[in-house]
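We emphasize that the prediction below concerns an isolated chain of 476 residues; any contacts that depend on oligomerization or on bound cofactors are therefore not represented. The input was used exactly as deposited, without trimming of termini.
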Amino acid sequence: MNDNPASTLVLKTDVAVIGGGTAGLAAERAARKNGASTLLIDPDFNGTTCARVGCMPSKLLIAASREAARIERAGLFGIEVEGVRIDGPAVLRRVRTERDRFARLTREAIARLPKDVAIRARARFEGPGRLLLDDGRKVEARTIVIATGSAPILPEPFAALGAAALTSDTVFDLEDLPRRLAVVGSGAIGLELAQAFAHLGVEVALFDKGARMAKVRCDKVHGALREVMEDDLALHLGVDVTPHASDHGVRLSWRGASEGEALFDKVLVAVGRKPQLGGLDLDKAGLDLDDHGVPRYERTTMRCGESSVFMAGDAAADLPLLHEASHEGAIAGRNAAAFPAPIPVERNTPFAITFTEPVLATIGKAEKEGAVTGSADFSDQGRARVDGLNRGILTLYAAAPDGRLIGADLIAPAGEHLAHMLAWAVQGGLTATQLLNMPFYHPTVEEGLKQALRTICAATPIALPPDQDAGTPAGA
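Result of the prediction step, given as a token string:
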């Protein structure tokens, strides 16, 4: 890693990547693989958002909460468990220990980059193809990739609460579980963490000014999600929340679809994340910006207009998910290396998973873009009932006239696996009939798909597969 400003005042390279997170690392890797000289510029190189404050620590907390919920559910199977105690400090110590390991491994991977590729500095544009570093050096690059990531939004009324206000960047540094927690925002982060803390014995209230959680598209799926969340915590949708500092924590008052006031130890603010583009002096790069100050770009190349600048990851404010950030980084890095010859890429089927219990997922296109719809109810599905996890809804969307799958919404047991299956089927252009021709083992949750697939087949001119049993095995 080149940390010595005196080593050279002007650094020249084919591709300069600003940001050492998931997208930036992928962009640098792809550019170098395609024959370009590269620089990777970041002020900290302290690990990716996923490893430090996102995917991994949140899933570690969820893993602990899932174990607690499983033990709580043991009575359903005739197993009585006595004397269960949740050790909050121990739960959070494991979260931090494993989180720090993931972040360390990321930093070690960065340290293995070729000599002088990683530059520890903060960059801003001096002009097209030119960067100024905060250590006094300059960079001249044929192309530049912006992969600066995003940061949690913390509105001023909550920021004024000081340590009583948490974000996804700070919540995992708690030393112990709070007794009462307010979560503001019902997106993926808010839902996951609210339910996880609730399963760990924390008294949780979840607030959102919208009436729809996690932008769920299907009314039936949203209804099932609402039932799940209301079983675990106090849910207040369609309300405006006002925080007040208190000697004993935070007092929240809310008005709208419901009204009330309550005292909480902490408030977790999960109202979204914003691209980290401040301080880049984008006006000097000659880029066309949208109403939010994000450069406009083409998704198939990640190139910003006719410029030599490319976007990638959360900074692009498109689909802030790790697999998308990694893909966008690869697309941007390859195109930056090949500039000015574009290499357009067909983007993958979009899908998002929220790790609630059961799992919530959105795949591909919405119901309004499909001509045929089929649903599956998991409340009496065989394997789900065997495991005591029988709740949830899955809705498939297909195009007429052949029943080709185009999307799905679900909240279901084994939802993360069903979501992958359906994303692959959508991207592969498979029809409901083709999926029904695949083997389904019994008893599995995957069998639950048959109900929705058969509904789609019945609504299309193509009959059910003639060599497949149209009946339902006991418990399927």
